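Example (one chain per record):
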Amino acid sequence: MTETQRAHLALFATTLIFGFHYTIAKSLMSVTFSPMQLIFLRLLGGVIIFWLFQKLFVPEKVERKDLITLAVCGMFGFALNQALFYEGLSLTTPVDASLIHVMNPILVLVFASLIIGERVTWTKAGGIALGATGTLILVLYGKMVSFDGSHAIGNILVLLNMVFYALYLVLIKPMVGKYHTTTILKWVSAFGFIFILPFSIKPAFEINFAAIPPIAWVELGYIIILNTFVAYLLINFALKHLMPSVISYYNYLQPVIAALSSFTIGQGIITWQKVLAALLIFTGVWLVNKKRGSEVAR
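Predicted structure:
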């Protein structure tokens, strides 16, 4: 298996992790934690794990001039990205959030073209168009994104979350070719935690740890270990071998995975519209990856 193939496998695993995260995070915020409490625990746990892992296995130092870039990435990719996501998800639904997140490839393509000069080719534009068409079919024949009441504010916050995550993917790209993944994540998670601390420290002190049920601890462990530590490691590994636009394209798979998972637990049915949408999305992924093999990171 080539490094490029491993990168795509890492992205697919990340997509699965992120796909389950919507429902888990919504469940926790509905019963156990407020959005700021959850973001505090997630970032604190992430900082501890990244710092310990990097200190034990990758004792690497960064140049002082790069700390500014890492601080900006920490603010965009951890603080603003995750805070806006949790605040938005608390007001909207996992379905709405997952559908809004499929706009990420378009945002990344625009930012990558403007900031790091990534070429916008017909193949790439066609792949995104295929994915967008498949997602549109899911929206039109599935559950529509709602903009009623608090849903409007929640969906706007999730959309802003996507803007900052797209910026993070583009801005962090030069760093992954210079430093080890764990070194980068050690610093961006630390900066993200520092930026969010003034807004989350008071809610954090209000957490009643004695009242947290066992299942909530398991779900919190999933968010910290898999959704933060493992997922971000996989994303940064993939960025070493693929362009940001290819990585962001995997957001199109999340509605498909959500539909399949709902079917397996008896909460949904497979229709020809969903099959057509899945075929369009997977064909788009294959087309982009096959035709743009030259776009692996140098």
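Caption: The chain has one domain: 3-291.
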